[in-house]
Amino acid sequence: MDNLRKLAILLQGGGVMASRTAFVYDSSFPLRSLEMFFIRHSKDVFNRLEFSRALEKARLLSSDKHFLSVTDIDALVVVDGVIRAAFEIKNMREDVVNYGGYVKVNGRQYETYMEFVKKTGIDVFYLIKVEGVRRYFYSWSVKRVPVRFEWLGKNETRDYYALIRKEYVATLDEEDLPMYLRDIIFGKEVV
Length: 191
Prior knowledge:
By secondary structure, the chain is an alpha+beta fold. It has helices at residues 3-13, 16-25, 31-61, 94-97, 107-120, 177-186; strands at residues 75-79, 82-93, 98-99, 102-106, 124-131, 135-141, 148-152, 159-165, 170-172. Strand 7 (148-152) and strand 8 form a beta hairpin.
């Protein structure tokens, strides 16, 4: 397995401290490669911020008033030249993502994905790695799962959320994830 792939797997699997420790003890990662990886990643984040600010300036320069929002899709899965699915990939704490019998995510972003699905026909799946007592994943289809929107919180923590009933959400252990993804990408209909 090449170093960049090992690095990506390592970064997905653990917290910052665990990853740093692994970098110390696994000398197969040359420091220069690690430096370049993190510099590139930081530049990607900066480029997104720079792009968003330029879009906001463009909106202000427009002769009409517009509401502007910018979101990204984390992964487009293409099989044999056909886009099969899109994914919004998140990492959330158990106490943040769970809201009673619901899974809670950003409402504005969810509405944007609903519009994307409607306009393109490409389904967007949420895949949330939940960090808590144990690690597991939540996943569901924006196209097929009912959603409720609600303002929650008070004062500075008040925000607009999409609430998805847990009965419509697949809860997966790490070892179940590849089969679930296989079914989405190559076959069976799933939530």
